[in-house]
Amino acid sequence: MNRDEWKEKLSLIKDSFFSALSQPGPDNAEALKVAYLGRKGELSLLLRDLKDFPIEERKALGALGNALKAEFEAALDAKAGVSGRFEARDKCAEDLTLPGYPFPKGGLHPLTVAAAKMCEGFQKLGFSVADGPLIEEDLFNFEALNFAPDHPARDMQDTFYVDLKDARGKDLLLRTHTSPVQIRTMKNTAPPLRVISAGRVFRSEAVDASHSFVFHQLEGFALDRNITMADLKWTLDAFIKDMFGSSAKTAFSPSFFPFVEPGAQVAVSCVFCPGSGARCPVCKGTGWIELLGAGVIHPNVVRNCGYDPEQWSGFAFGAGVERFAMLLYGISDMRTLYENDLRVLKQL
Ligand code: FA5
Questions:
Q1: Is the CB of residue 292 less than 8 Å from the CB of residue 320?
Q2: pTM
Q3: Which CATH number belongs to the domain containing residue 140 in this structure?
C-alpha cells in the first residue's frame, strides 16, 4: 500500500464510521468503538500498517490517522452521553410535564367539627379550655361531685371499672361524664373561672339510635362571686343562638343531678319543624329537643373543691356532642357517626 492508497483507505474508514454512527440505537456507540478503535478495529489496523512507511511519511500519515482517532473518540463520547440521557428519560415512568394525580383530601369527622364549633361558641363568650384524664378516680367522677358511695344517682351512669386501684385503694374507672374536669380545675385553679372541656366518656349502655357506650360530652362551668341561674340561662341562650341561629329558643325544665341545685334539662326549639309538626321525627311534635343537663353548682361541690360556698358560686352544664352533631347535620341515628362509611361521611 502506498501513501495515497493509505489516505484513500483512511477516508473510506471515516465515511463508514460516521455513517454507522448516525444510525439510531443506544448500544451503537459501544459497538463502533470496538469495530474502529478496538485492538483489531479498522482504524487501529490501518495505523499499524504505517510501520512499513518511510519515517517522514509515517509521521505525516500518523498525524492524520491520530487526528481521525481523536475525532472518532469525541464523536463516540458525545453519542454515549446523548443516549445515556435518552435512556434515563425512557426509564422514568412518569411524564413529568403532565399535571399531578389529584391527592384525595380528607375532612374532619362530623363529631370533631361539632365539638370544635361548640368550643368556639363558648370561647367567644370568654371560656377557656381544660382537659382531664379518661381513666378517672372515684373521687373526681363521683364523690367530689356529691354522689355519696351508695347513692342511687350512681345508677344513672352505669360504669366501666378498671382493674387498677387509685392511691386510696379504690377501683379506677372510665369516666362516665366530663364533670370530673370541673373538680380537677377548681381544685387546681383559683376563681374566677369560666372553663369548658370536651372529650370521650364511657357508660355500660346498649347501643341504639340515640345511645352509645362510648360517646362525647362538652362540659362547661363558671365559678365566681354572685353567680346565679340567670347567668346560666343567659350563657346557654347566647350559645344556642350562636349554634342554631337567632330565632332558636331555649327552655329549662327541672331535673336532678347531685352536683347542681337547682338542676335543669335544657331544650332547644326544634330546628327541623316550625314547632307544631306532629310528624317531626326529631322533636316528635313537641317542638322542643332536649340537649343538655345544667344547673347551679351545689354548695357541697364548691366546698369539696376548697371554697366557701357563701363567697363563691357557679353554674355548670354538660352536653352530648353526638346530639349536637346530629342536629347540625340532620342525622337521625347516632350510629351513623361511628360507622365511618365514606359514602355517608362525604355528604356531611
Ligand atoms: C351528665 O352526664 C351530666 N354530667 C351533665 C351535667 C353537667 C349536668 C353539669 C349538670 C351540670 P347526662 O347523663 O344527662 O348528664 O348526659 C349529658 C348528655 O350526654 C345528654 O344530654 C346526652 O346528650 C348525652 N348522653 C348521655 N348518655 C348518652 C349515651 N349513652 N350515648 C350518647 N349520648 C349520651
A1: yes
A2: 0.73
A3: 3.30.930.10
